[in-house]
């Protein structure tokens, strides 16, 4: 008898819970599509300053940073992620919404003299 009640409960409740969870996950997602960096000159200055060889770059992706929770949901800046061919990890260059470079760091196994690795 208990198995029948549990089976009926799951039959009717589980789909509703699943759809609710997926809807909530979709609405609260902070994933953004990559964009073209609007300030490539400042990014190029970083690459030149740290003697980063462009032929060693596997991929480059720029994402907009948004001030979520604000009424205007405005752009607060950009972060460009650069993956290299010769190491696992990436270089991150954070820029203010007007292009100023605010932060440069590395994640993973890559090593670039003068840049902190987190």
Give a written overview of the molecule:
- This protein has 118 residues and is an alpha+beta fold.
- Mean pLDDT is 83; it is low at 22-29.
- Helix content is 31%, strand content 31%.
- The protein has helices spanning 2-27, 40-49, and strands spanning 57-66, 75-84, 89-96, 101-108.
- It folds into 2 domains: 1-31; 40-108, Nuclear Transport Factor 2, Chain: A (Roll).
- The longest helix has 26 residues, at 2-27.
- The protein is extended.
- The protein has 2 helices and 4 strands, in the order H-H-E-E-E-E.
- Strands 1-2-3-4 form a 4-stranded antiparallel beta sheet, covered by helices on one side.
Give me the oligomer status.
single chain
Examine the secondary-structure arrangement and name the CATH architecture of the largest domain.
Answer: Roll
Query: In what range is the share of β-strand residues?
Result: 25-35%
- What is the β-strand count? 4
**Name of the top-level CATH class of the largest domain:** Alpha Beta
Helical residue percent? Answer: 25-40%
Q: How is the CATH topology of the largest domain named? A: Nuclear Transport Factor 2, Chain: A
Main β-sheet, in a few words?
4 strands, antiparallel
Count of helical segments? 2
Structural class: alpha+beta
Largest beta sheet: strand ordering:
1-2-3-4
Spatial gap, N to C terminus: 56 Å
Q: What is the global morphology?
A: extended
- Write down the overall mean pLDDT: 83
Which regions contain 5 or more consecutive residues with pLDDT less than 50?
A: 22-29
């Amino acid at each position: 008898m208990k198995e029948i009640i549990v089976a009926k409960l799951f039959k009717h409740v589980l789909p509703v819970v699943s759809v609710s969870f997926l809807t909530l996950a979709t609405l609260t997602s902070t994933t953004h599509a990559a964009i073209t960096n609007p300030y490539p000159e400042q990014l190029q200055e970083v690459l030149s300053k740290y003697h980063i060889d462009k032929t060693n770059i596997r991929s480059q992706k720029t994402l907009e940073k948004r001030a979520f929770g604000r009424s205007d949901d405005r752009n607060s800046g950009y972060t460009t992620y650069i993956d290299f061919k010769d190491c696992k990890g990436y270089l991150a260059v954070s820029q203010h919404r007007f292009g100023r470079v605010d932060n440069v760091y590395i994640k993973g196994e890559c090593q670039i003299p003068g840049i902190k690795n987190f």
